[in-house]
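Here is the promised in-class demo. Please do not try to memorize the tokens; focus on the logic of going from shape to residues.
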């Protein structure tokens, strides 16, 4: 039987970070297990290909939700990365940390060590941002390269002008003192190539003698002996095998697969496990519960001028652009086509933004397939802090069977109000004087400003979808029902932790990739018994105090 000091399950946003940090001093033998394969295909490296990467068959779990009651019974496609780098190899590469409020709320839930000043040093340690000088907010020399988008399409400027004219302030740094406002985003892109957790953390560590990576390996269950996680049963290339951990097993399989593996191992709600044909070993009823996701909508407009991405649809231009991006890291395919946007308040009296809005100078593939292709653009947004809560539950003891995923979108009335208000705000920006010179017609079939609540709600039910940010299914907490504690140790089992987006007690206000890497950076210090990075007090102006 193979034996390692640490076994990390899942080579995604968190797993690659852990593989690097746990193996870097050479004292520990580390195994990283990934169900998928290599991330070397060009589809992963060219930023403009992000939309294709979401649904690339060889690297995707191809999940679907349960029929959504408040979305006209539709099943929503949930692509999740099944590849080295996990979802960081197929995502939109936007570098976003969330707000100060997010982490201070975690601390207020009893999670000492997870406030904003506690996590900020780990964001800074991970970051290399050559365009921003090292400061209280930003780091230099970390493995994760960050750069500011060029946003040189005239439509971006028109969108920003429209938002500013409606009273939404400019913001030059969404990862600085405040999220509020509109501006240009930062991305995990280097010289026109994607930067994932695999490229940033795993490749530099790949030649270490004490780090072993198994791809094409599916975890069937955790073996628990006398209350301690001691080994994993796996299917390696379809062949059963067992691997033992001397110190710890760390699940970093994501918000879907981490609770699934716990449940397959008998850790979860005993009644549900019995119904699924699994023997309960550790009662932890919140495993797979508390699921949160950002649900978004997309308002589409036809453009009267040929300044959109539709110019690249001609085969010769598309091939030329892709080759230029892959070989030289330049040209339109070397950028992610959602470079401008921001965090807005749907009502001015609010203390914090409640939506994240993004502008795209082109139409999506679904629109083209519907026969509405041509020059156009999209204004999209999602609610930052949804109150609806869903579940991820196994259906059987077979690890190859996808669990039942029910995000319960729009179950909370408060979510419907925010999405309704956000739709009207996006429509006002879309009909503003700055964008009117480009707008040929509305493709979205509602006059959102004038429509009744019922009409807007009906349109959302038929069109809303995920923005690919599931979290919180193995939430950490200080209460008796929490799946993991503040050290990310699984309640009721020694030698077992969960380190990924599933441990977030509340979803962060923004994209989840960078926060997940931060969690892993912090977890590595916990696992190795190191003192946490020094807490930094940061005031609103960005000065250390």
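The designed amino acids, position by position:
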């Amino acid at each position: 039987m193979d034996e390692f000091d640490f076994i990390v399950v899942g080579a995604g946003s968190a797993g690659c970070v852990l593989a690097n940090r746990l193996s870097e001093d050479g004292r520990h033998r580390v195994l990283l297990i990934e169900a998928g394969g290599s991330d070397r295909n060009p589809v992963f490296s060219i930023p403009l290909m992000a939309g294709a990467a979401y649904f690339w068959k060889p690297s995707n779990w191809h999940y679907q939700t349960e029929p959504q009651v408040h979305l006209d019974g539709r099943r929503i496609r949930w692509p999740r990365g099944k590849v080295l780098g996990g979802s960081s190899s197929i995502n939109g590469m936007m570098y976003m940390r969330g707000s100060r409020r997010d982490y201070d709320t975690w601390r207020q839930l009893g999670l000492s060590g997870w406030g904003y000043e506690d996590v900020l040093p780990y964001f800074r340690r991970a970051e290399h941002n050559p365009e921003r000088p090292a400061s209280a907010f930003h780091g230099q020399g970390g493995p994760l390269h960050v750069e500011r988008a060029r946003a040189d399409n005239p439509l971006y400027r028109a969108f920003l002008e429209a938002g500013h004219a409606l009273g939404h302030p400019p913001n030059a740094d969404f990862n600085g003192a405040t999220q509020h406002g509109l501006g240009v985003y930062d991305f995990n892109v280097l010289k026109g190539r994607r930067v994932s957790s695999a490229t940033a953390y795993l490749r530099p560590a790949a030649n270490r003698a004490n780090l072993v990576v198994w791809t094409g390996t599916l975890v069937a269950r955790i073996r628990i002996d006398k209350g301690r996680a001691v080994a994993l049963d796996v299917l390696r290339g379809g062949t059963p095998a067992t691997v033992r951990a001397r110190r710890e097993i760390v699940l970093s399989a994501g918000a879907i697969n981490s609770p699934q593996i716990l449940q397959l191992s008998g850790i979860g709600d005993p009644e549900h496990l019995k119904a699924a044909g699994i023997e309960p070993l550790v009662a932890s009823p919140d495993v797979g519960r508390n699921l949160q996701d950002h649900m978004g909508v997309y308002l589409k407009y036809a453009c009267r001028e040929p300044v959109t991405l539709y110019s690249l649809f001609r085969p010769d231009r598309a091939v030329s652009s892709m080759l230029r991006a892959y070989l030289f890291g330049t040209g339109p395919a070397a950028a992610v086509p959602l470079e401008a946007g921001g965090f807005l308040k749907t009502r001015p009296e609010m203390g914090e933004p409640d939506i994240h809005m993004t502008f795209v100078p082109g139409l999506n593939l679904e629109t083209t397939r519907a026969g509405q292709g041509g020059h156009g653009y999209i204004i999209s947004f999602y609610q930052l802090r949804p109150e609806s809560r869903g579940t991820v539950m196994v259906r059987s003891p077979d690890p190859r069977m996808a669990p039942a995923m029910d995000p319960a979108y729009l179950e909370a009335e408060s979510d419907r109000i925010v999405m309704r208000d956000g739709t009207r705000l996006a429509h006002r920006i879309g009909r503003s004087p700055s964008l009117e010179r480009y707008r040929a017609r509305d493709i979205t079939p509602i006059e959102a400003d004038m429509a009744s609540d019922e009409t807007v709600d009906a349109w959302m039910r038929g069109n809303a979808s995920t923005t690919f940010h599931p979290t919180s299914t193995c939430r950490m907490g200080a209460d008796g029902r929490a799946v993991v504690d503040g050290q990310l140790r699984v309640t009721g089992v020694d030698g077992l932790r969960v380190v990924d987006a599933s441990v977030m007690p509340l979803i962060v206000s923004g994209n989840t990739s960078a926060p997940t890497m931060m969690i892993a950076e912090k977890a590595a210090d916990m696992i190795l018994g190191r003192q946490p990075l020094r807490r930094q007090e940061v005031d609103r102006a960005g000065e250390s105090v």
